[in-house]
Design a protein that fits this description.
The chain is mainly α and 235 residues long. The protein folds into two domains: 13-111, DNA polymerase, domain 1 (Orthogonal Bundle); 127-212, Intergrase catalytic core (hpI Integrase, Chain A, Orthogonal Bundle). The chain is built from eight helices and three strands, in the order αααααααβββα. It has helices spanning 13-26, 32-53, 65-75, 81-100, 127-134, 142-157, 161-165, 200-212; strands at residues 172-174, 182-187, 193-198. A three-stranded antiparallel β-sheet has the order 1-2-3. Strand 2 and strand 3 (193-198) form a beta hairpin. Helix 1 runs antiparallel to helix 2 (32-53) and helix 2 (32-53) packs across helix 4. The chain is elongated and about 85 Å long. The two termini are 52 Å apart. 19% of the residues are buried.
Length: 235
């Protein structure tokens, strides 16, 4: 860092960019890949600023939040939001370094927030895909009955796989009415317990599995779904 408290405006952004990349390599021990990404992002930023100002000799103080936001807006047509966020992060790091080293009096880039992360819909199966999946386990074998019960229970309740394998037999409660399903006490994230409802098809699948659950096994395991050794299934 420079010792002078006076902001130095003699160096152009191009010169400062090279100093910044040298700083990343020599003082931050950044990898060649990281330095290359910073260089590409910041050179694209400088080219955009040069096109706005009509000159290649730009001083740091000549760029404000409006120009930086304009640069970010120009990226949306051809970049994913994650790429835009990375490019802006590079700019913010560069401006923070310039401010810290007295090449800039005010860090204008810090006033430009990063784009919010995209919210993507979770992947899901269609009804026909679920029906095909339910046909896979053989209901003539012990493992097949178990796997079929697992699929029916997942489909009926929407619980997570990790929650399902942690179920105990005591978590189940069947409805007293045979034509109805039942409820399960599920221990979810942060060990919060909730009660979920399952339908009659899931009930029948689980009841059929329970009839042969411990068949041929010497176990007092309370887990609802057992592996071939009589222990709890794991994810």
């Amino acid at each position: 860092m420079q010792n002078s408290s006076v902001v130095s405006s003699e160096k152009s952004l191009e010169t400062l960019l090279e100093l910044f990349l040298k700083y990343l390599a020599e003082q931050k021990n950044a990898s060649p890949h990281t330095i290359r990404n910073y260089g590409q992002d910041l050179r694209a930023f400088l080219q955009y600023m040069e096109s706005l100002h009509g000159t290649a000799k730009l001083a740091p103080e000549s760029i404000g939040p409006v120009q930086i936001r304009s640069f970010v807006a120009s990226l949306y047509n051809r970049n994913a939001r994650s790429s835009i966020s990375r490019k802006l992060s590079s700019v913010r790091s560069f401006f923070r370094w310039m401010t810290k080293n007295d090449y800039l009096s005010i860090d204008m880039a810090s006033r430009v927030p990063l784009p919010k992360a995209e919210k993507k819909l979770p992947a899901f199966l269609t009804i026909s895909e679920v029906e095909d999946l339910l046909l896979i386990p053989s209901r003539e074998t012990k493992d097949g009955l178990r796997d079929y019960a697992i699929l029916e229970l997942l489909y009926s309740t929407g619980m997570r796989v990790g929650e399902l394998v942690s179920l105990n037999c005591t978590n189940l409660e069947f409805s007293p009415i045979p034509e109805e399903g039942g409820t399960i006490r599920v221990l979810g994230k942060r060990r919060k317990e909730r009660v979920v409802v399952f339908g009659v098809l899931a009930r029948k699948a689980v009841e059929n599995y329970l009839q042969i659950r411990s068949q041929g096994l010497s176990t007092d395991e309370n887990a609802l779904f057992l592996n071939h050794r009589g222990g709890r299934l794991t994810v």
